[in-house]
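A favour, since you know our structure tokens better than I do. Just paste the record in under my message, thanks.
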Amino acid sequence: MPQTRRALLRRLAIGQAEGRAPSMMGAVVRGGRPVWTGARGSVAGEEPHSDVQYRIGSITKTFVAVMVLRLRDAGLLRLADPIGRYVEGTPVPEATIAQLLAHSSGLAAEPRGPWWERTAGELRPEQADLFGERPQRLPAGRRHHYSNTGYALLGALVERLRDGETWGEVLRREVLEPLGMRRTTLRPLMPHADGWAVHPWADALLPEPAQDTGLMAPAGQLWSTLEDLCRWAAFLLRGDERVLSATSLDEMRTPAVPPEHDGWDAGYGLGLQLVRRNGRRTGGAEGAWAGRRLAGHTGSMPGFLAALWVDTEEDLAGIALANCTSGTAIGAVAGDLLEIVADREPRIPEPWRPLSGPLDKDLLALTGPWYWGANPFALRLRAERALELVPLSGTGRASRFRAEPDGTWTGLDGYYAGETLRVVRAEDGSADHLDLGTFIFTRGPYEPAGPVPGGVDAEGWRV
């Protein structure tokens, strides 16, 4: 609506003016396509358009993580595998691939030597040149400690398992081309913005170098455009089977390390930053925390800032790009663009539609009320033979379940994530009870004839 568009432009204008960015661009993606784009300032004397390249810094890590998950889904590695199994000469051979993705390997944040983002990659020609005398600063797997060097190792992992092909070529062929992202590159292509530092006490500019960072490139080398990043945001929201499934993207958005404090407002999944905006506790001191949950990444390289956030519940993304080294909270700009639309124009639910294809009557017979002890639940049938278990009493553990070829289901979220749901049938073939990770669900509350662990008092219910 016009009022929303004005609010979006105003937020972008405030970000550019107060952050003193030579230029700033923003976009909102909804329903898999850009629904608003805006620009302030100038590039080469003109207002930038959506095909102008900016350096996106650590948003590069989201691309590297997708390539690693593709290798996992192809059966070429397990996330629990130690990196030393695939990459020789690493200082942390026992750190797992999952720990590197989630920045919990304990590796040092930065490579040794001069500031890697402003110096040529030739200064560190070999992997051993990335690490100093104390490469590991924390015990692996215990805490989140952001590590650019960890993503250098993940780039080497991609190259090792793709027969020595460079990670950039793998990225282009397996990810960028299928998604139509032809303007996302390792080196800048015209038209592109120049990177600037802005003097802290005067409105003066200083050009920043744009170095090829060599082995550190998987940590932050990529250049991209607003148009391409809208495609990337749509992919992160919905997945694309040609690149990575929605299930694997859900896994990337799941917190992979414990929060540092109660009521977390930031975390990290597998290659994705996680933030909770406007977090608040509900239900008093012991209540749950609420707030809009976003996934994505911020990025910075000398002369550039970038941010991309997605909200899967709203099917919405916000993107912001600027060509300055510091001065503007680019992550807040991207998040605000998203929230302006979410607050002013909340998502309209997709139309309800019946299940497609022939209805499996055996599955339909499983639906309805089930009881864990005396606690009532409902089992619902979803598309592709999926099941959903929801509590009916206001308390209890809800979860979604994916159908498996062997006739069982695997939990996707909540307490039962990864657990197996089995239907135990009676002699006549009817469903007798459900076994969910040893928890027994029966058709009635504490049925005397049911296989309730520990048995049921012979006199049954009483007053």
Summary: DSSP finds nine helices and 19 strands in the chain.
